[in-house]
Automatic annotation (TrEMBL), chain A:
<feature type="modified residue" description="4-aspartylphosphate">
    <location>
        <position position="52"/>
    </location>
</feature>
<feature type="domain" description="Response regulatory">
    <location>
        <begin position="3"/>
        <end position="119"/>
    </location>
</feature>
<dbReference type="GO" id="GO:0000160">
    <property type="term" value="P:phosphorelay signal transduction system"/>
</dbReference>
<protein>
    <submittedName>
        <fullName>Two-component system, chemotaxis family, response regulator CheY</fullName>
    </submittedName>
</protein>
<dbReference type="InterPro" id="IPR050595">
    <property type="entry name" value="Bact_response_regulator"/>
</dbReference>
<dbReference type="InterPro" id="IPR011006">
    <property type="entry name" value="CheY-like_superfamily"/>
</dbReference>
<keyword id="KW-0597">Phosphoprotein</keyword>
<dbReference type="Pfam" id="PF00072">
    <property type="entry name" value="Response_reg"/>
</dbReference>
<dbReference type="InterPro" id="IPR001789">
    <property type="entry name" value="Sig_transdc_resp-reg_receiver"/>
</dbReference>
Automatic annotation (TrEMBL), chain B:
<feature type="domain" description="CheW-like">
    <location>
        <begin position="588"/>
        <end position="723"/>
    </location>
</feature>
<dbReference type="Pfam" id="PF01584">
    <property type="entry name" value="CheW"/>
</dbReference>
<comment type="function">
    <text>Involved in the transmission of sensory signals from the chemoreceptors to the flagellar motors. CheA is autophosphorylated; it can transfer its phosphate group to either CheB or CheY.</text>
</comment>
<dbReference type="Pfam" id="PF01627">
    <property type="entry name" value="Hpt"/>
</dbReference>
<keyword id="KW-0547">Nucleotide-binding</keyword>
<keyword id="KW-0808">Transferase</keyword>
<dbReference type="InterPro" id="IPR036641">
    <property type="entry name" value="HPT_dom_sf"/>
</dbReference>
<keyword id="KW-0067">ATP-binding</keyword>
<feature type="region of interest" description="Disordered">
    <location>
        <begin position="725"/>
        <end position="746"/>
    </location>
</feature>
Amino acid sequence: MATILVVDDSASLRNMVVFTLKQRGYDVVEAADGQEALSKAREAVCDLVLTDVNMPIMDGILLCSELRKLPSFKFTPILMLTTENSSEMKQKGRAAGATGWLVKPFNPETLLSTLKRVVR
Amino acid sequence: MSIDLAQFIPTFLEESFEGLEVMESGLLNLDTEDAETINAIFRAAHSIKGGAGTFGFTDITDFTHVVETLMDELRAERRAFTDTLKNLLLSSVDCIRLLLEAARDNTECNDPQVDQVFKQLEMVLAGGEVVLTHADNEKADSTHNLSSENDNLPENVSSAGEINNSGWHIEFKPAQHLLMTGNEPILMMAALAECGEFLVHACTANVPALLDLNPEELFLVWDMDLYSDCDEAVVREVFEWVEDDCELTITPIVDDNRAVNSQSDSLFQEHLADFQNPQGDVPVSVQDEAPVAATITTESVAPEASVSITAAERAEMSSVAKSQDNVRKSQSDAGSIRVGIDKIDGLINRVGELVITQSMLGQVGSELADLEHPAVDRLNDGLLQLERNTRDLQEEVMRIRMLPISFVFNRFPRLVHDVSSQLGKEVELKLSGEQTELDKTVMEKIGDPLLHLVRNALDHGLETPQERVAAGKSECGTLDLNAYHQGGFIIIQIKDDGRGLDTQRIREKALENGLISSDQVLSEADIHDLIFLPGFSTAVEVNGLSGRGVGMDVVRRNIESLGGHVSVTSEAGIGSSFTVTLPLTLAILDGQLIKLQQEAYIIPLVSIVESIWVSAEALNAVAGQGRLFLFRDEYVPVIHLSSLFGFEEYSKDFSSSLMVIVEGGGKKAGLIVDELQGQQQVVIKSLETNYKRVDGFFGATILGNGQVALILDVASLIKMGLDNANKKQPRRHKNNDEAQQMKVRV
């Protein structure tokens, strides 16, 4: 089963996402900010990254462009979890190399059905 | 305390079904914008959602939440009530009923209608006016399944009337860099294939010659036909993230001429395999040979690959998906099961017997090794495998009993909070290694000793804030609890940064209580060790282990009764650290096999300090103390096990004996043995259960040859040995009689 890196500074949302993913059998690596995520990404092979945008220390956009610099993350889907569905946000994400976005709040079913489009 | 919510579920279901009826009749009669009826529907949805949330039916909560939100918008007149909306809401009622029925029957609702309606509701909420008008159609046939839906699709579609197309034609020309965005066409197509019958033509015309081909880029263009009654928005959603990175046209398919090329199915599988791994595995075995590459190119450009997923395949796929669902469900159900501890103990016992049988067979095998017979080799191979499998099995079974030490550690944050505020101290508790696992029985027995050590650290180790500041430390003291595995043991450390042990006071106290004599020279570590001696604590023993009044000797005794030991290091003004070493399990033990007069015994490896040859000269007779041996600047009493156990052929000849230096109960001793044999893991059989408690023995085990070997309890043996030595007269020890009897019975 795929390994998913979940990055969010809000523990409650992260827990919900992690719980949902684990229930579905995915392996999950957690990080509370971009910096932590980046160091974990260097250690573990991930098949998908789900990251919040607004986070302390390193935000999701920067994380995304940093990840794309790693050879092992060249093709890895990176989804941004965002509260705003603006085209400006999407543009920023796309420029950083994001694969797609998920607009918060979302329920576990949406999350899982959306994931199927980018991860096996 | 937890309340079993399950008892309220029947009531909840009853209420909810009533609520659905209210919703249904309300919706049917809602011709005009009747505020009271809308309110009633809203309230019904709201209470179903609330109840479902409480009882953990998240699917119902999620579904009803959307309905509720929609009703709320209607109620606030932010949305006009239309017939399409009414139909959608009515089919939502059906879906909620399906979900409730599933909840009632303890099954999972796999009806695709639920997801479909849910998506439509969400779409409506997201601001789209598009409401799929075929919802009524769907509702009429709520028992339909995926495959029948597909088989009947053309009829359905034409009879629906309101749907003027039988699917969507999609032209998808992704940008070359699409893969670099992390998007994956094959997965998108798989998502589309879930909506209905799906036909894909891959156009390879743009694929460059192999030499020019950049494997990281995408050159394919796809024509797709999706025969489905799904909404265009559903199709668009799949392409949501790539719409800026591709040319995409989506047009309705009006006619019904489908060319299902079943012959290309296998082709599809092949191409699928190619697509699965677009980044790397392009067959580039051709290297630099241009002519060859050219021929390949012409071939690869040749015909357009036409692939389809037939209805039959889809049915298969959905059944696979369903069975996966079932597996998943049973997995989540089987995530943990409650099993009586007696069953597990029975299993462990059985495996223990298996280990004995295996080692018996192993011995037979090695005895046969000299025979020149081809079967002997095969036998030994088989025995080797048996050994490996037995070992694995044993490990797995032992793991069942393993629990993370957090079960014990979790008691401490509250305790530290309570005790420290009681004492007016500021303490920060740091826990680490909570996930370290150990045997349940060990865990149950280690709780109280640890509690005592923690209380001790809070009480005596850590200072008050004033004292700490005066000593130049931060006001807040730190208490570290750490657990980790080392070898076959778990190490638990309780470390504080308090004042440390007061060696002067301990010495005085020990003198007072007659534990040491005034002329005894003791190292700092020796003095620290005194706190574990019985009689050191001046406090009165209260009931059992209330945490107060129990001396450290009880802590040490309890830990040693588990086959572990405890030690302390301390530095004045810096802090103290107690280290508890415990075996991971009480069922198996690493032992040293020894022989006395042809009888086998086991010494727990954890108790052994060193095994040495000694000569008679090294043994000094001291009046009143038996014999002593100078072991690293320390005189240790010598215990002749044969004599202690009362074997007849006792010899006083100490010349060149084998001595095992052991440590237990804070004392060292040298045990004279006849023979040292191998080290091995032994399965502990309780003497209490099988016979009765025998002083000096911890338990018994059965060796590979079927012989019973007693496991020495080093601490109590040392005590016995010292008592005996004082009597100076070798005598037949009554324990041996008992042990002999027991061997007959086991």
